[in-house]
Amino acid sequence: MTLLVDTGAFYALADRSDRNSRAAKDFFLEALDRYEFVTSSAVVLEAWTLIRNKLGWPAAGRYLDGLRKSEVAILFIEPVEFEAAARIMSDYADQQLSLTDAISFALMERHGIGDAFAFDKDFLLYRFGPRKQRSFTCWP
Questions:
Q1: Domain residues of the chain, as ranges?
Q2: Do 2 and 36 contact (CB within 8 A), yes or no?
Q3: CA 13: distance to chain centroid?
Q4: Does 3.40.50.1010 match the CATH number of domain 2-139?
Q5: Bridge-based pairing state of the strands 73-75 and 36-40
Q6: What is the pLDDT of residues 45-74, one digit of tens each?
Q7: Burial class (CB in 10 A: 0-12, 13-18, 19+), 107
Q8: How many CB atoms lie within 10 A of CB 25?
Q9: Given pLDDT bands bounded at 50, 70 and 90, which one contains residue 129?
Q10: Are 86 and 24 contacting, i.e. CB atoms less than 8 angstroms apart?
Q11: Are β-strands 134-135 and 137-139 bridged in parallel, bridged antiparallel, or unpaired?
Q12: Residue from 116, 63, 109 nearest 85 by CA
């Protein structure tokens, strides 16, 4: 099964003092053999910037090096996802979703990914599919 890794999960793995760090590390180690991990190029940029701003340049470098050495596949944004993300942002304007989350939702829909390694409640809020009856599952 494929799992999209969100910014919050990457950050929790990078920052031992983050309130989600222990859960993120435990889940990641347990899930390595059960899931194929993917992320988006938007998440990579957002996570790198967050880590650099909060933990410093060396931590951001470790994140990038670790990601490059890992088996986490990076899904790059196509025009179709950008347009879908713009529609999602418009449809959920009252929720003030991040553009990165909207891009992740569009990628997940297009690639048939139903699960996310995320601490962001917006993944649970978003609905898709016929009559918008489906939602994503968040781990841990």
A1: 2-139
A2: yes
A3: 13
A4: yes
A5: parallel
A6: 999 999 999 999 999 999 999 999 999 999
A7: buried
A8: 14
A9: confident
A10: no
A11: unpaired
A12: 109
